[in-house]
Amino acid sequence: MPKLLGEFLTVNSAMDGPLPMDESNHFGAQPGPRRRRARASRARLLEFLVINRQSPVTVVDQVATAIEHLIVTGGLKSGDLLPSTRELARTLDIGRATALSVIARLSAEGFVETRVGSGSRVRARSADLLTASAAPAPSSLKRSQVPGAVAIQQQVALLDTLPKHVSRSTSLMDLQGLSVATPFAPGMPAIDQFPYHTWSDFCAKSWKHATAAMLETRDPAGYRPLREALAGYLASARGVRCTADQVIIVSGAQHAFDLTLRVLTQPGDRVLIEDPGFLGARNAMLSAGLNLRGVPLDEEGVMVPDDNGGAKLLYTTPSHQYPMGRTMSLARRRALLEWARRTSCFIFEDDYSSEFRYDGKPLPSLQGSDEYSRVIYAGTFNKIMFPSLRLGYLVVPEELVDVFLSIRTWSDGCPPGVIQAAMLQFIERGAFYSHIRRLREIYAARHSLLCELISERMGLMLSVVSDPAGLNLAAVAKRPIDDVALSRRARNANIVCPPLSQYFVQAEPQRGFQFGFASSNEAQMRAAIDRLEVVWGQGASTAT
């Protein structure tokens, strides 16, 4: 879609493809199918043409460009009858002269043909223009000629360059059926503690007072009142320095990272990730055809690379490193930011569970210390509220806002406006902060309990290494074990504890497991530990 359309069309995506038929649009005698389709086409076209009166683009250009787009994308077919100029003027509330100018422009550019007494129809030649540069028929193509086939083959081949311990069979563990009811499920919040009634009240009020802006989602950055509230919340809670204009509403941290890759990288570019690091980020990089390199950790967090080798982006989780659970030191944060300035590399800060720290106050975000506009910051409500909410946020440097929004406009839409409005009320009325405070107390107790259970029941095999924060903890093996095989045994018993070795890219993998504690209460944890002892048995001492 031309950039121009984004300035005034609010629901034009629904018109992509052939216009739907509507056989209820008639009076009196039943017209024939062709006449019914023509009437429906005109009605649907008028329904989706929306003019932005504040746009600097003239009304003639807005309407004409919108109709051209529908013709090019197949929304209007050859021979389709356009609304009359009187119908256009009346429905769009424009002058008859303006409507005549729209048709005159379309006719001059070869998109429509006008005949006295027959109206204006889409010209057959304009449809032919669409197929002039079409690809050959599939039967005549070799596999290497299929658009995108070579790139896809290269992306798949990248998986074969990874070490054996991160092959497809182990790095993409079978998590079908994973839910909050699955013991030790990583990243799962306590759904049993969610304030359903409060949230449903806000959702009901959001629907009751829904505005056209909420339902149309005109702004690709998301519902502005929510972005304004987020800018204030992030400043006070995480030390993030931004305005509402820098906040983009997304469906979660994974979506934020995917959008960032689309903006900042091209296939073949070098990108860096913590080693060990988050599988979702690693798989997104590989899927984008990027040249992935791991950066090892030490006690202070991800190490500062000596040379970025032309890397475009570094992915990091400084508040609670995934999967090891350590917090990046202030000194390392400063050194990493200076490295990013020196090498012109961007840093993607995934602040996925920063609200939950159980020993002292959390350190401010990395973005809050960034003086060079090198940090892209992402967070999510899904880990606080519930996973299917699909609501998160991205904070980008001012210089990159326009390009992020441009790419976002063509790649996807915002989460539902009414849900964003309900989230705004949840924050402004204080329910959000009350919920976080309550969860901190519950998660702190559950974290402490799981640490005790691992120490008491598995202390000869495992040692907890994570800081008291987040929704998960890491426990490393004290002696050689096959953590992949043991993890599969646990999965067969409906317990999820992913092997730590699968998170390593190039560094020598540590053996151990990741345990989620947020979604399991005391009884569930104790029962799961009992089952693990039975399932693992002597397998816990299997050497690799």
Keywords:
single chain, 544 residues, alpha/beta, Arc Repressor Mutant, subunit A, Aspartate Aminotransferase, domain 1, Aspartate Aminotransferase, domain 2, eight-stranded mixed beta sheet, three-stranded antiparallel beta sheet, 18 helices, 13 strands, elongated, disordered N terminus
Query: What Rg do the Cα atoms give?
Result: 28 Å
Low-confidence stretches: 1-30, 125-156, 164-177, 538-544
Helical content, roughly? 40-55%
Q: How would you state the average pLDDT, rounded?
A: 80
Number of helices: 18
* CATH architecture descriptor text of the largest domain: 3-Layer(aba) Sandwich
Q: What is the SS-derived class?
A: alpha/beta
CATH topology of the largest domain: Aspartate Aminotransferase, domain 2
Strand order of the largest sheet: 3-10-9-8-7-4-5-6
How many domains is the backbone divided into?
3
Total count of strands: 13
Summarize the structure.
The chain is α/β, with parallel strands linked by helices. The chain is 40% helix and 11% strand. It holds the Pfam family GntR.
Summarize the structure in words.
The protein is of the alpha/beta class and 544 residues long. It has three domains: 35-126, Orthogonal Bundle (Arc Repressor Mutant, subunit A), CATH 1.10.10.10; 161-189 and 435-541, Aspartate Aminotransferase, domain 1 (Alpha-Beta Complex), CATH 3.90.1150.10; 193-430, Aspartate Aminotransferase, domain 2, CATH 3.40.640.10. The protein contains 18 helices and 13 strands. It has helices spanning 33-48, 59-72, 85-92, 96-108, 124-131, 149-160, 168-171, 196-208, 212-216, 224-238, 253-264, 279-287, 330-343, 401-411, 417-428, 431-458, 483-492, 522-536, and strands spanning 112-115, 119-122, 247-250, 270-275, 291-298, 301-302, 313-316, 346-350, 375-380, 392-395, 462-464, 472-477, 512-516. An eight-stranded mixed beta sheet has the order 3-10-9-8-7-4-5-6, with helices on both faces. A three-stranded antiparallel beta sheet has the order 11-12-13, with helices on one face. A two-stranded antiparallel sheet has the order 1-2. Helix 2 crosses helix 4 (96-108), helix 8 (196-208) packs across helix 15 and helix 11 runs parallel beside helix 12. The protein starts with 32 loop residues before the first helix and ends in an 8-residue tail after the last helix. Mean pLDDT is 80; it is low at 1-30, 125-156, 164-177 and 538-544.
